[in-house]
């Protein structure tokens, strides 16, 4: 999977900046624990930390193309190209010769063959940078769905870049400033494409190429969602979805290291696990290994809430037995979830106080436990965005609201932090205005289908909002928590071919059986037990242990008593005190609990990252 970073400066000889370039590279050690590399040239410093997945001996980076004594290009790359074997054959036929069996070398040779058009040939999850020594030009490229992260920070004479903000912040040229717009982005629970939170920092947008040369910085979209008429009836659509998933899974099971699945007992992860079990069995590669997260006493003492009607464990075990998986439950208690060291790791993984409390801590601990057994895990992430699985897709009030659907109809579980802001600051930044502007910006992008009206037109908009805004929140979370422990997580439902096909299927097809995710349910009917096919969507679990809530309040109370928090510039202490002194035992879906979680994160972030406030 790996971590990448670099520095381009057209007015400075960076061969003398090894120490700073190495410091940037070192911040990516968690993403790449197996190897490291640093390449220096007069105007470019390229760093890499490697998590070895394919061709363990031959895939070292940064990788330099050496042709007839020249070094025309240097690549630093994170991710997986799932069609690299086909590309290798095509490039060999075009005269390219390979020294390794890695997908990295295939990507480098593909760039030499197709230049900026290389991304259009790739199927996979990737973020990479190519320094072309022939033109002294840098290309930053990100995969179509934004599975792999990539940030950049323009400087007076070039650019800094990295897989995560921490790599950029390790360079003294990068300032750590949070302005009013950055604060809004932190709190809004909407993901604005290209916004990097820190003032002057940006993300490469999914499906985008950023070109850096002496003339400046230019951006180009090589992929975006498009609308077209869907020619297939329901039965054919279900068949085609299954065919795509069969092909996707066969590609994503390729690995030279141990592989497993993440299993929650829901339709998405169960489908991934069942397909993996089927493919591995047919290839004679044994049984699939699966892992699930659970909490001490969770199933026995479970209480339904707005979004979770059932605990996961019974369904997890039913699926594991059904497909013959080698399954392990990772059972956590509240002491582990509230461990200050764990919470600090979660914040450092994200670089930003945008976490969702115990759901981040438990995911980090789950991945840490899995890493002791596997290096690659397959996830059901993004199926809800692709197939329309969330409850608000099917809630009339949420769908018809003039905002992002996940913020309407009582579903705004993770936006509670704004209620703690000082009143004058809240009026000044006007978070509702910010959300409204971002919503209009997103709607303006939606590719319309001529003649499409009414509910079908609106559900195309809702799907687009999820596939370009909401899914990024979850993909970022999964990437940061997994890569903090050096675990590669693959997301089969983000294959762009599947996304394009289902996006253009009519909403009536997606709900043909009167349920959520009808197409996925139909495509998996022969693989899954009836209990899972009938199960209602249940999000990732949050602890319901009252002692967790109590410890959360104790930590917040300690900050109030300390009186020396940098968050005091933003947060109204009386509002925090009212929560701390209020009733104990709030569920994981409570915005009050979310507010306390964000308050604690914000305080730690401002301290540790030495953030300058300009709000």
Walk me through the structure.
The protein has 615 residues and is an alpha/beta fold. Helix content is 40%, strand content 17%. It is built from 23 helices and 19 strands. It has a 6-stranded antiparallel sheet. Strands 4-5-6-7-12-13 form a 6-stranded antiparallel sheet, covered by helices on one side. Strands 16-15-14-17-18 form a 5-stranded parallel sheet, sandwiched between helices. The chain is globular. The model has no long low-confidence stretch (mean pLDDT 94).
Measured as a percent range, the helix fraction is 40-55%
Give the rounded overall mean pLDDT. 94
Tell me the CATH topology of the largest domain.
Rossmann fold
Number of distinct helices: 23
Number of domains: 2
Give the radius of gyration: 24 Å
Give the percentage of residues in beta strands: 15-25%
CATH class of the largest domain: Alpha Beta
The low-confidence parts are none
State the strand order across the main sheet.
2-3-1-9-8-11
Quick one: how many beta strands? 19
Family: Belongs to the asparagine synthetase family.
Protein name: asparagine synthase (glutamine-hydrolyzing)
Organism: Nonomuraea terrae
Pathway: Amino-acid biosynthesis; L-asparagine biosynthesis; L-asparagine from L-aspartate (L-Gln route): step 1/1
């Amino acid at each position: 999977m790996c971590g990448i970073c670099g520095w381009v400066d057209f007015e400075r000889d960076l061969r003398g900046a090894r120490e700073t370039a190495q410091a940037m590279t070192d911040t990516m050690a968690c993403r790449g624990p197996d190897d490291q590399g640093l390449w220096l040239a007069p105007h470019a410093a390229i760093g890499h930390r490697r998590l070895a997945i394919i061709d363990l001996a031959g895939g070292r980076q940064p990788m330099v193309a050496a042709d007839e004594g020249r070094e025309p290009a240097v690549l630093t790359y994170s991710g997986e190209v799932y069609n690299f074997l086909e590309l290798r054959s095509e490039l060999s036929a075009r005269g390219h010769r390979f020294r390794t069996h890695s997908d990295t070398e295939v990507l480098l040779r593909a760039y030499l063959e197709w230049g900026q058009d290389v991304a259009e040939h790739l199927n996979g999850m990737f973020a990479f940078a190519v320094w072309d020594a022939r033109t002294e030009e840098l290309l930053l490229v990100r995969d179509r769905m934004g599975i792999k992260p990539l940030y950049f920070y323009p400087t007076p004479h070039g650019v800094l870049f990295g897989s995560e903000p921490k790599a950029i912040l390790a360079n003294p040229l990068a300032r750590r400033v949070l302005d009013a717009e950055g604060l809004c982005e932190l709190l809004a629970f909407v993901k604005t494409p290209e916004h990097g939170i820190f003032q002057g920092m940006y993300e490469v947008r999914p499906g985008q190429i950023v070109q850096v040369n002496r003339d400046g910085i230019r951006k180009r979209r090589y992929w975006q969602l498009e609308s077209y008429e869907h020619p297939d009836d329901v039965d054919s659509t279900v068949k085609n979805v299954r065919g795509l998933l069969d092909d996707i899974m066969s590609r994503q099971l390729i690995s030279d290291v141990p592989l497993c699945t993440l299993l929650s007992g829901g339709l998405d992860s169960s489908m991934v696990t069942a397909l993996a079990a089927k493919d591995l069995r047919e290839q004679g590669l044994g049984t699939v290994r699966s892992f699930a997260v659970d909490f001490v006493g969770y199933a026995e003492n479970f209480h339904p809430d707005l979004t979770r009607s059932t605990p996961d464990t019974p369904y997890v075990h039913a699926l594991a037995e059904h497909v013959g998986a080698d399954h392990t439950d990772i059972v956590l208690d509240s002491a582990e979830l509230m461990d200050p060291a764990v919470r600090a790791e979660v914040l450092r993984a994200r670089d930003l106080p945008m976490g969702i409390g115990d759901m981040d801590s438990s995911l980090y601990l789950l991945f840490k436990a899995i890493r002791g057994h596997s290096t690659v895990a397959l996830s059901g992430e993004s199926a809800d965005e692709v197939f329309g699985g969330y409850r608000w897709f099917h809630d009339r009030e949420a769908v018809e609201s003039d905002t992002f659907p996940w913020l309407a109809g009582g579903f705004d579980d993770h936006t509670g932090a704004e209620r703690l802001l000082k009143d004058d600051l809240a009026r000044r930044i006007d978070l509702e205005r910010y959300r409204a502007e971002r919503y209009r910006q997103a709607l303006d992008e939606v590719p319309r289908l001529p003649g499409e009206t009414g509910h079908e037109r609106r559900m195309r908009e809702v799907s687009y909002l999820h596939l370009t805004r909401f899914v990024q929140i979850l993909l970022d979370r999964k990437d940061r928590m997994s890569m903090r422990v050096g675990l590669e997580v693959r997301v089969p439902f983000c294959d762009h071919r599947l996304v394009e096909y289902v996006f253009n299927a009519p909403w009536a097809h997606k709900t043909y059986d009167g349920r959520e995710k009808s197409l996925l349910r139909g495509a998996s009917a022969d693989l899954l037990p009836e209990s899972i096919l009938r199960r209602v969507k249940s999000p990732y679990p949050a602890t319901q242990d009252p002692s967790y809530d109590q410890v959360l309040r104790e930590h917040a109370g300690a900050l109030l008593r300390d009186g020396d928090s940098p968050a005091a510039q933003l947060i109204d202490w009386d509002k925090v005190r009212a929560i701390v002194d209020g009733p104990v035992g709030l569920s994981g879906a409570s915005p009050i609990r979310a507010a306390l979680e964000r308050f604690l994160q914000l305080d730690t972030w401002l301290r540790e990252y030495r953030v300058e406030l300009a709000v």
